[in-house]
## 1
Amino acid sequence: MASYEKRGKSYRIKVSCGYMVDGKQVIRTKTWTPDPVMTPKQIEKELQRQIIVFEEECKIHPVTSAMKFQTVAEEWFEQYANLNLKNTTLTRQRQLTKRVYKAIGHIRLDKLTARDIQKFINSLAIEGANEKTGKPLARKTMVHYLSFISTVIDYAVIMDMIRENVCRRVRVPKGSKKKRHILTMEETKQFFELLEDHASLKWKAFFTLAIYSGMRRGEMLGLEWHDIDFVTGMIHIERTSNYTKSKGIYTDTPKTENSVRYIKVPVQVLDVLKEYRAWQKSEIHRLGNKWQSTDRLFTKWDGRPMNLQTPYGWLKEFCEEYDFPFYGIHQFRHLHTSLLIGAGIDPTTVAGVLGHAQVSTTLNLYSHMFRENQVRACDAVANALSFNEPPKPDPPENPNKIILTENCKEGENKQARIIYIKTEYGTG
C-alpha cells in the first residue's frame, strides 16, 4: 500500500514491498517534484498518477528476500510449524530437512528455480537413493519432500518475500509404489485360528479388534476401558498414542478432526474384550503396587502405555513362527476397508468409519475397489432390465465364504445380523 508526505516543494512516495525473513518491513521510496507552474489541482492529480505508476513498478520489479532457503525454512519452523503441527508431523518434517538442506539449502530464495527443485526430486528416484535398501525412494516419499519445499516457499509468498511458488512447475517421477497386500478370506480364517490356538489373550484381543474395527495402530494403543460401551457395542475413539525420540511415548488427539468418532463392534469382539479385561484385572491384583494404572487396554507388563513398535514386532515373530504371510499392522485396516467396500457401503460412510478427513482420501486410496463395485452396479442394472431372459440360477455356495453372526441378547430383536464376506473382496 502506498502513502506520501510533502517535503518542502517535493513529495516522497512510499510503497511497502512486504517483509524480510527477520520480520523487517521492506519499504521503497520515490521523490517527485511538481512543475512550479502547476496549479494545486493539477499537482494533486499528477501525484495520484505518480503513486499508481510507482506501485506498478514495485510489482514488476519487487524487492525479494536475499535469504537462503535454509534460513527461510528455519523461520517457517519457528513461526508456524512449532506452533501448529502435531509432534509426529513436526518430527517427520525435520527428518526431511537433512536431504533438502544439503541439496538446495544454500541457494538464495529469490534465485531458487523450478529446475533446481526438479533436479533434487529426480535424484530421489535413482538407484541408491534409499540408503537402507539401495533402491529409489517410493513415490509417496518424493511427494513428501516436494510438499515440504512447497510449504516453505508458500510461507515466503505469504510473507511477500517472493511473488510465486516455483514448485507448481515441478513434477514427481513415477517411482516405485509400495504394494498393498490384503489378506484373502482363507488367510483371514487361518489367522483367526492361529490366534485362538497359539496367541495370548492380549494379542488375540488386539488383532481381533484391529480386524473388526479398522482402527489405526495409534488409536488402538490410545484406547481406554471407559471408551467402550459393552451394552451398545460402541467404541469412542478420541485419542492416539504416539512416539517421538524427544518426547518418548505420549498421548495426543487423533490424526484429523474426523478421526474423533464412534464405531460399533459385534458381540464376538465384545466377548473377547470382556475376557481380556478380566485377565488384566487379575494381573493388576497380582502385581499390586507395581502396576501403574492408566486405564489403557493394551499396555506393557506393568500397566504403562505400550510402545508403538511392540505389536509390529510381535506380529512379525508370530507370522514367522507359524509360516504365515506378514504384511505389517496396517494390512488389517486395509482388510476391514475391503470388506466394507465389498459389502456395497458408500464412500462417505467408509470414510467416516476410517476417520478420513475427506471422502477424496478414501476414494484415492481404495479407488480400485470402488471401480469393482461400479462394474457390479452396471451388471445389476442390466440384469434387472432383462425382462425376456429366463432367471439365472443361484450361484453355487462359495466354500471360502465366512459368515459372521452377531448374537442378539435376551429381550432384543431376535433377527440375526449377518455379514457376508466373499473371497474376491479380500484378494491382495
## 2
Amino acid sequence: MLDIRFICDNKIEIERAMKNRGVEVPIAQLVSLNEARREKLKEVEDLKHRRNRSSGEIAVLKREKKDAAGLIKEMQEVSGSIKEIDTEVREIEGKIRELLLMVPNIPEDSVPVGKDAGKNKIVREELSDKREFDFEPREHADVGETLDILDIQAAVKLSESRFVMLMGKGALLERALTCFMLEQQIKNGYLEVIPPFMVNSKAMTGTGQLPKFEKELYRCRDDDLYLIPTAEVPLTNMHSGEILSGDKLPLKYVAGTPCFRREAGSYGKDTKGLIRNHQFNKVEIVRFTKPEDSSEQLEELLADAESILKLLKIPYRVVLLCTGDLGFGSARTYDLEMWMPGEKKWREVSSCSNFKDFQARRLNIRYRDRGKPVSFVHTLNGSGLAVGRTFAAVLENYQNGDGTVEVPEALRPYMNGLERIEK
C-alpha cells in the first residue's frame, strides 16, 4: 500500500506511474479525501482547544460562585460536535484505505515501459543445456500419460478439469523435486517453514491478494479462511505488526506447499497437463530486508531461484517484466522462463519480485537500527520453483525417442537412485 501523504505530495509522479502500468486509479479522489480529512482534523483540534480553554473558565466561575450554566451547555454542544466530526474523520479514513488498497505499487524507474508482455526485456539466456533432438519431442502431458505416471481423466472424475493425478514414479518425481528444491534453498540460507495452508482475510489483504484478486481465491464458506494461492501469504504475514531488529536482517524463509487458484479469466488456456491447474505444489522463497539492501537482495533471490534450473540442467532465460505486465504489488520483477521443446515455447516457472515497502505498510512490518528511527522493511519473494511446471519441463527436456524419460542427475538421490522412468 502506498502512503497517502506520498501520493498527495507526488500526484504527477503517481499518475504517470499508473499510466505506465495501464491502470486507472482515483488519485484525485484520494487527494480530495485527504484534504477533507485534514480540514476535519483541524476543526476538531480548534474545538478541543476551545473546550479546554472553556473548562478553565468554568472552573473559575464555579470557584467564584458564579453562574456557569450557559458555558457548560455550550461546552456540551462542543463535545457533541467533536464526537460527530471524529465519526466523520473515521469514515473518511475508511474510504481512503478502501481506495488505497486498490492502488498498485509504483514501478522502479529501470522497469521497461510497455502495455503487455511484448515489451518485456530478455536479460539473458542460459541455453548451454538445450538439447538437439533427433526425433520430434512430445508435450509433457502426452509423455506422462504414455508412461502411466500422469492421469488427467481420473482427476477430472474426482474433481473437474485443471486437476491432475500423479501415479507411481510420477508421484515420486513430484516428491523428489519438492525435496530437492527445499534442500537447495536451505543450502542457500533459507529457514524452512511449514505454514498453515489456510489463512484469514486480513492475511490475504496484507500481501495484496484482497481485495483486488478475490475472484482468484478459494474461500471457505463457513469461516473467514482462504486456501493459500502461494506460500508468500503465510510467510510474509509471519511478522505482521512486528518491529524487527535491524541487525537480524535479512530474514530468509522457504516453504513447500500446495497452492490453490481458481484461474478465473483463463478459460480455454492450458487446459491439459501441469501448466495452469487449480491445485499445484510450489516452493516459495521470501526475504525481509532493509530498504537500502533490497535491490541487491532481489538479485540474490533471483540467483537462488536460478540455481534449481542450473542444477537440473534445464535451459532457461531471465526476463525483466515491463510496467504493463508487472504484478499488482511489485516494483520490479524478473521472470524465469524454461524452454519446453515439446510445446516449442517458453514457460514461466518463477517470478522474483521486490515489493519494497508496499506489503510492509499493509502489514505494519518495521525494523529498528540503534540510533535510527523505526522504518518499514522491504519484502521480496519468488518461486524456487513451481514444482508442477518443473515436472513438465523435466518430461519434455529429458524425454527419449522410445518414450522413456531420463532422470536428471541432481534428482537421482531423491528417487532412490532411479536413472530412467519407463512404463
## 3
Amino acid sequence: MMTAILKTKFKELLHLNDSPQKIAMAFAVGVFIAFSPIIGFHTAMVFLAAWVFRLNLVALFIGAFVNNPWTLAPLYGLCLWFGISLYGGISAFPDVSWKHQTFMTILKNLKPYIGPFFLGTTILGIMFAVLSYFLIFFVIRQIKKPKNEISV
C-alpha cells in the first residue's frame, strides 16, 4: 500500500509542467522543510515557501511529507543523535522519574538536547535537500528525455 502511494506521488511529480530544475528545487526545499525542528508548522512552511520562492506546491508537499507520522520518530531520532555527535558534551540521557513530572521539569530535562536537535535537523536537512535535488533532477531528466535524443 505504501509503495502504491509513493508511485502515485512520484508520477504526480513527473507530470508537473515546470522544468526539471524547478521541480527538483521545489522537492529539495520540501525535504529541507521535512527536517525542520518546528513540529506542526511544516504545512504552513510549505505554503510560505511556495509563495515566497514561487515554487511548485505539489513538489514542495511531496518533499515535505518525507517526514510523516511513520517517519517522524526515526528521522528526528537520527537528527538528535547526529546533533549530539557534533555538539558533544552530552554523554547519557537523563534518568527521568515520571511520577512527579511537571511542564517545567520536562523543559529542564530537555534543555541540553535543544541545541543538538536544532543543529542535527539543520545540517541533515541541508544535506538531504542537496542530495534529493540532484537525485530528483537526474531522474526527471532521464524519464522526460525525448526518445529521439542521442546520449553522448
## 4
Amino acid sequence: MNGIMNRRSVAVATLCSIFLFSCGQKQPPPPPAIPVNLYTVTAQPVVYYDRYTATTVALSQVNLLPEVQGYITGIFFTEGTSVKKGQKLYEIDRRIYQANYNTAAANLKVAEGNLKQAQQDADRYEYLYNNKAVAKQLYDHAMITLENSRNASKSAQEALKNANTNLTYSVISAPFDGTVGFSQVKLGDLMTVGQTVLATISSDNPMGVDFLINEKQLPAFDNLEKTRHAPIDSLFTLILPSSAMYAYTGTIAVIDRAVNPQTGSIRIRLHFPNPKSELRAGMSCVVRVHNQDPAPQLLIPNRAVVEEMGEYFVYVARDSAPGGTGDTTRQHAPGGQRGGTFAYQKKVFLGATLGPNVIVRNGIAGGDRIVSDGVQSLHNGSSIAPAADRSAARAEADGGAGQNIPQGRR
C-alpha cells in the first residue's frame, strides 16, 4: 500500500513540474526591425546618353589585285602608313609591256602611212574615173583599198591603246587617300591576274561607325536623320576602347534599308572626322546618343536595385501590410503583422545608368519610398526601421525580448 502511495506521489510531482515549467515559458519575441535608409522617388529632368556597342568601318576599302601578269620588281611604300590618291605602290616587270607598246606604236605609224597612200591613190583614180580616163574596176579597187587602210589604222590605234593600258597596269597606284596595310607580296613574287592580293587600302577620314538599334527606336533615329543638317551639339559621341572620350562628334549618315527579321534590329552608320587617324577600321567602341526626351525621369540609387535571374527589383516601404486588388507587391507581411513599416519587393524596368544612379522606366511611381541601404538583409515582407525610427525600434526589440540580441542576428 505504501508503494502505491509513493508512486502516486511521484506522478503528481512530475505533472506539477511539467505544468510549472510550461507556465514559466515565454513566447519568443518577434524578429527585430532591420535598420535601413529610405529614398523617396521623385521625377526630375536629367541629361543622359543611350549607349550602343559599335564598330568602326572604313567608308572605302579595297584589296589591290594585279591586272597584268609578271614579277614584282618594285615596292614603293611603307606598310601601315598613309598614302595619297595616285601614289605609286607596286611595279610589275614592265619590259614585255613596254616592248608591246613600242611595237603597237610602230604598227600604227605603218598603218597611218598605208592610209595616206591609199587616200592619194583613191583621189587620183576618182579624178580619172570622173573624166572617163580609167576603167571602173580600177576605181573600185582603189576605193576598197582606201577603206581597208582606214580599218587597219583604227585597229592599230586600238592595239596601241591596249598596249598602253597593260603598260599602265604594270604600275599599281593608290585608288584614293587612305592607309595601306601589310604587303602580301615581296620582290620577285609572280603575280596572277585577278587572284594575287597585293595589299589592302582603306580610307580613314572620315571614318564610319556602325551600330544596331531595336526596330522600336527607328522612328526616333528617322527624326534625327531628317534634322542632321542642323546637328545638335554632342548628339553623337564616341568612347574609345581605352575608355577615353573621342575628341570629335559624329553625324548620322545612313540608316539601313531593312530591319533584320530574325533579330528585329537595324543598322545605323555615323560619320566621325578622323584627321589624326586615331580611329582604325574594325575597332570596338561605344556610341553615346544624347537623349532628347525632355520629360522628367525617375532616378534612384543603383545600390537600391536587386537582381534576381535577370530581373530587377526594389524594396518599397509600406507602413502596414498592403491590401487591395491594385497592389502589385509579391505577398503580404508574414505572420499577419499589421503594425510598423515593412519592405515589399517590386519588379522594375530600368533605363540608362547615370553614375551611381539608374533611371527607372516602369514599376514604381514618384513619391514611393524605397530602401536605398541595407537591401542585402531584407526579404519580401521584412520589418524595417527607417533611419528616423531606428533607435526606438531597436530599444523596443531589445526590451521586449528581455535579453541582449547578438549583433550578428540583427
